[in-house]
Amino acid sequence: CWDFETGTEAPFALKLDMARQAWDEARHVEISVKLSDWMGTEIGQFAENTVLFEAACSNDPVLRLAGVNRALEGLAIDVFTTMKEFGDLAGDPYLEFCEDWMLADEVTHVKMGSDWLRRITENDAERRKKALEFQQIVDKLFSFGGTR
After folding, report:
1. Quick check: is 133 in a domain?
2. Which domain holds residue 22?
3. Residue 6 in this model has a pLDDT that exceeds 90
4. What pLDDT, on the 0 to 100 scale, is given for residue 3?
5. Residue 9 DSSP symbol
6. Do 62 and 117 meet the contact criterion of CB atoms below 8 Å apart?
7. Residue 113 lies in a domain
């Protein structure tokens, strides 16, 4: 949210929430590095690209709230839930615990995105409509035909 002007459009509290989310994401990296060590893999062994992030980005920061916080973080809820269940089935309490810990953050991230999207577009129905349409596009792109 670096390009939100602090003031009437985006209260400073929004930037604080996004800073908290950045801190949470940094912690997820640390947790994932430890899980990688635990599972005997190395950083880079299963490379990730930026397609998720690129697809959810927009020049309009309100659309980014919908695309990243609501769509991608919602996808992360599905992923972490599945991995937590896998940890349980595999009898790996470390995997289960770590995925559950990250899952709790994702729920907060989606809620922050939803709350701020409503507040920022409270008096701009057209911008809210565009943001929700953008979220649907991102959701469809990564839901694999509704199977997620």
Report:
1. yes
2. 12-142
3. no
4. 61
5. T
6. yes
7. yes
